[in-house]
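call fold(seq) -> tokens
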Amino acid sequence: MNYIGSKYSLIDFITETISSVAGGGEGRVFADLFAGTGVVGKTFKQRGFRVLSNDIQYYSYVLNKHLIENVPPIDVEMFAYLNGLEGREGFIYRNYCAGSGSGRNYFTDENGRKCDAVRMELERLKDRGEISEPQYFYLLASLINSIDKYANTASVYGAFLKGVKKSAAKEFRLELLPVIDGNKEGKAYNENISELIRKVSGDILYLDPPYNARQYCANYHVLETIARYDSPELKGKTGLRDYSGQKSDFCSSRTVADAFEDVIRNADFKYIFLSYNNEGLMPFEIIREIMQRYGDYEMFSTGYRRFKADTDENRTHKSDKTVEYLHCLIKR
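ret:
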């Protein structure tokens, strides 16, 4: 997925740095508590760590429920059957497709109907016990990952495009995510980190919080609705669901430092790593000052290209590149 803050392009830097400081993974616990699309967590699962994954967004939880908890073999018998379903006019078509009269153009009518058909059938199969929990989350995660490729947006769901772009016009096909081999004892959570950090413990804690004021719950609200399929009340031109319970304190300059220190103070982990870039809401000096209160601090950095949505060319940026810092604390 083309995801804001994804660490896909930085994974080698992250894994090599963490390994050089904290060592290998057999029998150790690695917590990825702002998991997003699961790039970091699944990498450490493959390296033998028992991974604890968490995100307050339910679509992220679904992705990580599959990537972290599922292990081969997983039965994929339903895959061809789901791809062969006829489209249905469900919640996605009625609220996010122009042909329904909703005024929203997130998906073509055909792709919206197909998404509904697959999503509704997954729920029916689960409720009737015709697929197991691992199969359900495997197929639902694959639906979320697949449908995103056909979204008629400028990368995020804060707005839809008036016309239909080339990738969105293609006929939707469900594609299976990989089943990640590795440690078989991982666990995925769907909680606020301020509550979860008081209940988990381990060896390495990796933190990749939001860097700026953009709330993920607003940027990916359509994926949240597909994942939950809970027929929420929608508001406004873009059809936003109520996300008041998912707002992050890390997205406000007023609350971010206190929220960060609360996590560090209550973390029962020896090694703590924070990914943060040079344009984040929390200044470098504040991060260093907070982490130094709790143990031995070190910092690593690398340059990388800025995330760009289709409309970024209309914004003014000082640079095409940013600096990614990996702050390290060995907690006393």
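The radius of gyration is 20 Å.
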